[in-house]
Amino acid sequence: MEKKVTMQMIAQRAGVSVVTVSNVLSGKKGASDQVRNLIFALAEETGYRKSASKTQDGGQTYRFGVLIAERYVKEYPSFYMHIYKEIAQEAAKRDCITILDVIDETCERIADPVYLFPDAEIDGLLIIGEMASLFVDLVRENSKVPVVGVDFYDVDKEMDFIIADSFRGMQKATERLIECGHKDIVFLGTPRATNSIMDRYMGYCKAMLLNHIDHTSLICDRSVDEYGSVIDFDLPSQLPAAFVCNCERSTALLIEKLRERGVRIPEDVSIAAFDRFLDEYPDGLKVTTYEIDEKVLARISVNTLLKRIKGKGKSFGIRMVDGVIKEGNTVKRRGR
Q1: Domain of 208?
Q2: Residue 336 belongs to a domain
Q3: What UniProt keywords apply to this chain's record, in alphabetical order (predicted)?
């Protein structure tokens, strides 16, 4: 049997990423003319165009529209762009094409119907990261295709959501600090900023209460406006024994602020966090985190959207992806 030609094969021969191949074949800009011509030539040479209407299981090839708020893309490094790349690679394995559209704040705030992907016909939509509730409603009403939310949820919306287990993950991260003898633990994050951060705060509270620690405390790290993505905060003059951070961007800034005050980690202050995304911290620090497998998150998201497109999905719901505690060197064991 003739071997199936995939976008991964074309990417390997062209020396580019699967995301680049996907964008070029779907008509998106971003690649140089030289790269575009090479990809089109390889696609024709390998017969990809001729066979692109069928997937590995004999079904149809689909186009996935992907929406990400501009504020998430501006972050560096961008966690959600990393998720997008994982989704594009997962889709490419099924010979499906992803088309990215970055939504700026003005577009997200509007209260009129929006027309997305005017230059491409799409079969389904993935929204990565929490966006304005009204905007999501308008997208669902006007797109007329299945929509799946990734790494956020809204219990009032009849759609699928694929999320990390924020509640249990933060409970485990907090319990790791408690197991090491810490009781004076501050939650770093703004619960009302997103549903995910709220769940993480609730997980922190549960861990504290179950261990008979009645005093909970938090430091907000951003505004509660749904468009606010700038992380900043002030540290108290009297520092706690430990911090548990809602995300690694907050963790990175916390470490920077503590170092400016001459505070040693973990000798003076211990730190645990939700999720591990950043590869490098100063002084060889490796943060103890509750880590989510982004590849699993991407695979479930793509599978869910494909089922909806094919009409095989059951009732709408929230699918949670579990993680594991990854030990670092930012938590010091203390006597109880």
Answers
A1: 166-291
A2: no
A3: DNA-binding, Transcription, Transcription regulation
